[in-house]
Each structure stands twice: as C-alpha cells, then as structure tokens.
Design a protein that fits this description.
9 helices; mainly alpha; single chain
Length: 293
C-alpha cells in the first residue's frame, strides 16, 4: 500500500528531483526500505543483467549484434583499465571497475528518460498535471546520495583488499610514510620527518576519498536534473500552449549536455578508482635498488 500520498498525477514532461529519496511504502511495512531511488536502481540492475545474459547466452564465432556490442564494450574497458593499473591488477580490479562504469553510465542516462523524476505526487495544477513532482515515483539512483555513497564504499573496500593483497600491511605503511631518496644523517632525518608529515596527509586523503567520490557524482547528476527543471519552467504561466512548448523546447539542448555529463561522470568515477588502485599497488622499485647498494 502506498504511503500517505495524494492521487498520482503527471507533470508536463519535467519536474524537480528532490534531494532525498522517498519511500514508496509505509515505513512500518515489510517493504518500507524500498524508495523511488531503489526501484530505479533495481530496474537498471535488471536491464544490465538482462543484456549481459542475452549477449553471452548463445555465443558464436560469428557474433550476433548483442554479443558483438557486449564484447566491444568489455574489451575496450578492459584495455583502458589495464593501461592504468597494469596487467596483473587489471585481472583483479576489472570486475569492479567495469561494473562501476556500466552501472553508473546506465543510471545517469536512465534518469533522462521521460517519466523518471517527473511522474509522482505534488500540488495539482489541473487534470493530470502538477506544479512539481516533489515525491516522484521514479528517481535516478545517482541523484541519491545514499546510492553514490554505497558505490564509493564498495570501491574503497576493494581498493583496500587489492592494496593489502599486493603490498601487505607493512608494505603499505612503508610506501605511505617511508622516506625516499636514500639520504642519511641530518638530511635523512629531515627528509624522514617531511615524508612522515606527507604520509599523514595521504592517510587523511584516503579516508575522505569515498566522500569526495560520492559527493562529486551526486552533485553533478542532481544539479543536471535541476537545470532541466529550471529550463522547463521558464515559460510557465504563459498560457497552456507556450508553457507546453517551453517545457519541451527549452530543456532539449540541455538533454544533450546531460548525456555528455552522464558519460563524463562515469569515466571520472571509474578513472579515479583506477588511479587509486594503481598508486597503492605500485612497488617502490627505487627503494629496493637502494637497499642492494
């Protein structure tokens, strides 16, 4: 049973996306954890899994269209990841990084579909129309801070696992705080103090990575939704014909911009995760060479 919402109505094409997800059922019910963001996230997940299953179910030497598209995307993404983290780490990190990129991209673009963020409940302005969908039935997952935090924490945990697996706990400590250059005496002590301070800064930056990753993705997607909403309301109150034409024509150029923003944010999120893995799993070869000397 839907929670205490008024009768669902439809806004003219675009509506504001609220800054938080809204529950679709009573909070006390068994399904109280399902929000409008969770619903779209499940749709995106189902869509990705369905296409992956369709592309790999009956694979042939002469690939069909779905298999060909799927293989092209995976091979391209794997090549990009391997070029950043290296061949060894790519085998371990790609399942996460490839999934992150595809899921974030589809989620970003899914939020631009008609009805996502526009069909819901709000102040009625006429038959089947509302002023703004304050509680949309469908909400873009990446415009919900809870979802982006979950993605960032998942990436952080995998980064931690790959780092400890590759260099070990002591190796990570030495890599972060250990002095470089092989200097001795007073200069060596001074350099060690500097690198100790730099190591503390590095630890702080590592701790806040999930925060910066999640807020960057959330902020860009949420801001894009509000830009579309603002442009669609510029001709509001100018008569039914002008209001409708304005809600369609004015946001149209920004739709193409949001398509690009959705792609760029998926690239940035995945690229930063790849760079973090590469930086923490790279051995300090110079330190080993100095030890031999």
């Amino acid at each position: 049973m839907l929670s205490s919402f008024s009768q669902p109505t439809f806004s003219p094409l675009l509506a504001n996306v609220h800054s938080h997800a809204s529950p679709l059922f009573e909070k006390e019910s068994f399904l109280g954890f399902i929000t409008n963001s969770t619903l779209v996230a499940l749709c995106v997940l189902g869509l990705v899994l369905w296409f992956a299953r369709k592309a790999t179910k009956n694979m042939t030497l002469v690939p069909h269209k779905a298999q060909n598209t799927f293989e092209f995307v995976i091979e391209f993404l794997y090549g990009q990841v391997e070029g950043i983290v290296g061949a060894k780490q790519a085998r371990l990190a790609f399942p996460l990084l490839g999934t992150l990129f595809i899921y974030i991209l589809v989620s970003n673009w899914f939020g631009l579909l008609p009805g996502v963020g526009t069909i819901g409940w709000g102040e009625s302005t006429g038959p089947l129309s509302i002023k703004a969908a304050h509680d949309p039935l469908l909400r873009p997952p990446t415009a919900d801070l809870n979802a982006t935090i979950g993605l960032s924490i998942s990436a952080f945990l995998v980064w931690l696992f790959l780092t400890i697996k590759e260099v070990g706990v002591w190796g990570f400590v030495v890599h972060t705080f250990g002095p470089k250059g092989g200097l001795k005496g007073i200069m060596g002590i001074a350099v060690a103090a500097v690198f100790l301070f730099v190591g503390v800064i590095e630890i702080v930056s590592i701790i806040i990575r999930p925060v910066t990753l999640s807020i960057r993705l959330f902020g860009n997607i949420f801001a894009g939704e509000n830009v579309l909403h603002t442009m669609s309301d510029l001709l509001a109150g100018q008569g039914p014909v002008m209001s409708f034409l304005g809600s369609v024509a004015l946001p149209l150029p920004f739709y193409f911009m949001e398509l690009l923003v959705g792609l760029l944010q998926a690239i940035v999120f995945t690229l930063l995760c790849s760079v973090y893995i590469q930086l923490s799993t790279t051995h300090d070869d110079h330190g080993h060479e100095d030890g031999h000397h």
